[in-house]
Design a protein that fits this description.
Length: 221
């Protein structure tokens, strides 16, 4: 257990995040503790390369990990099997047709090696509000009329900050991810932390400094 410096505690709605370069020297990149998931706080966090991630019994924890996993359209890798699935046209895609159902599925789906979810009621409320304001979006995969996969995240400038994805049938979340990377015009997709699932699609690690530098350029456009 480490001692948390005083500057890491968000004591009020006006308490700013400290500079991410001063984050604790931990692999997970903890940058702040506390505060609420207000629209203003969340937008400020994403603009600085920070995101919330915590268990339901914990206070809100904010992270800016180093390294950071990202992907660009040029680096997208589509395997032969996934390409074959895409060519069958058995799935259809929509954007923002059912955001609340996507985040609900991301909250409730069982995940390998995880006992629970980090998406609690406050996150559901906060990201739904971001969606209503035009900042959070969902990419949805349908088989017939049934929602079988998708993902959601926050879009600012030319950056999409991915939050979570789900699949009810094989490859559904990968199909949503391919659509996000290929078709929606973002220059950079933030994948947050390393994942073999996303690495198989071409996502790769960069340093936190490099990530922040890219944000500074792409958020202005």
């Amino acid at each position: 257990m480490i001692e948390i410096p005083k500057g890491f505690i968000l004591t009020s709605a006006d308490t700013p995040f400290m500079n991410v370069k001063l984050a604790l020297k931990q692999p997970n990149g903890l940058i702040a503790i506390g505060g609420e998931l207000s629209t203003e706080r969340l937008l400020s966090a994403y603009q600085q390369g920070i995101f919330p991630w915590y268990s339901e019994s914990d206070p809100v924890l904010w992270y800016s990990p180093d390294p950071r996993m990202v992907i660009t359209p040029e680096q997208l890798h589509i395997s032969k099997n996934l390409n074959k699935t895409l060519r069958t046209h058995q799935f259809s895609l929509k954007v923002d047709a059912n955001f609340e159902q996507v985040i609900h599925q991301c909250k409730t789906i069982k995940r390998k090696d995880q006992d629970g979810t980090w998406i609690d009621h406050n996150m559901l409320r906060a990201y739904t509000e971001l969606h209503l304001l035009g900042f959070a979006h969902s990419i949805e995969v349908y088989k017939g009329a049934e929602l079988v996969g998708g993902l959601y995240g926050v879009a600012l400038g030319q950056v999409f900050f991915g939050e979570s994805m789900f699949s009810l049938v094989s490859n559904a979340s990968k199909i949503a991810f391919v659509h996000l990377v290929q078709k929606l015009g973002y220059k950079l997709i933030d994948c947050q932390v390393q994942s073999p699932h996303l690495a198989s699609l071409g996502a790769y690690n960069i340093t936190r400094d490099a990530f922040i530098q890219r944000l500074d350029k792409l958020l202005l456009k």
